[in-house]
Amino acid sequence: MSEKLWDGRFSEKTDQSVEAFTSSIDVDRRLYRHDIEGSIAHCKMLAQASIITEDEALSLIQGLSTIRREIERGQFSFDDSLEDIHMHIEARLAQENTKTAQKLHTARSRNDQVALDTRMYLRDAVILILKQLAGFRQVIVALSEKHLDVVMPGYTHLQRAQPVLLSHHLMAYFEMFTRDAQRFSDGLNRINVNPLGSAALAGTPYPIDREATSQLLNFPKTSNNSIDAVSDRDFIIEFLSSASICMIHFSRFSEELILWSSSEFSFIDLPDSFTTGSSIMPQKKNPDVPELVRGKTGRVFGNLIALLTIMKSLPLAYNRDMQEDKEPLFDTVDTLNACIDIYTKMIPKLKINKKRMLEATTKGFLNATDMADYLVTKGLPFRQAHACVGKTVSYALDKNKELHELSLGEFKTFSSIVEADIFDALTTQKMINQRKSFGGTATANVNAAILKAKTALEKEKKKLEKYKPI
Predict the structure, then answer these.
(1) Could you say which of 65, 262, 278, 394 is catalytic?
(2) What pLDDT is stored for residue 18 in this prediction?
């Protein structure tokens, strides 16, 4: 299989070191299904346009189908001398039917061929990621619904700030991962564009029907400019950017799971089946899964930066540098798939320490803002109320007390408008359910958000079920 499909121009054989250096088959072989599907559609279009005969198209399609089976059964030989998956498939086709196989590449180039394969691959990958994210968000909603009565401290600057429902905190991640799904879904509009027929960069003189090819391959759009079609990798960069943002969200979630499972917090207990021990300290239970997810975030960031760097100075149109787009793409798809999958399995098994979370809301003056709000309801301007509560907190600190541990007399020292109903206003449950503004942590709000999320996910999953990958 060492004979090149482009040998006609050259008087010397390619050096073996060059073959090894320029080969991408170890990376791009995973595109074989998309390459074959694209070639089959191309054959059908060529026959419809009378560029090849129906019999030739049938012969080519049968040969391509045979090659797909050989690859899937592990019966296909790969060789660095043939560089990439496109040349491997065409060379193997030529072994069976040389004359007809030589017509396969009519009206196309490897430049538009690889752009097609990558778009088809990424379209399938994004649909799978959307399905996975829908499943993961469903897990978040289920955990939120299960623990709707659990109260925890909300934090700013990693300092206890105000009490919130654990469900409200978890549903914040639902919103974050929903935005990720929206970004991936929107990116499909720019992935789902057919570049085939652009050839090397200038189009082709053959009377091809690009719209017919688009229909055969389920592309709603056909590229407008042949130069742009073969040199565009924006759709991959956009995907890597969306993946990076998604990994930020996983990393933030990971950080909280790591903190919450520490002895200092003891808010949660990670399942034994998703943790590891120490080789020297028998008591240790390490949060390796969240730590690895947090670490893999940098890997995905690196893939984005790698492709941005590759593309930033390339003149139009295709350049061989662009061969380096697949490793960061494939690695990001694999990494993101793995992170979503393992979190979907782990999160339902979290053990929530309800008592510890509630205890944490009773210390650290989390009810200070509510005291200020209480004073406002009694007629005091907020800034004056803020200053009054600040002085009350300072006094309580000196007495080693929390606000709700002060007597009515002590409260009146700072403001005569305070009455006995202050104590009800400073209870955790009252503080939670007072936050009724849209999007707030009141139980009724969170319950409504959960119901809304469940309805939205059902619609989303039904829509995704209609898509059948290649």
Answers:
(1) 278
(2) 85
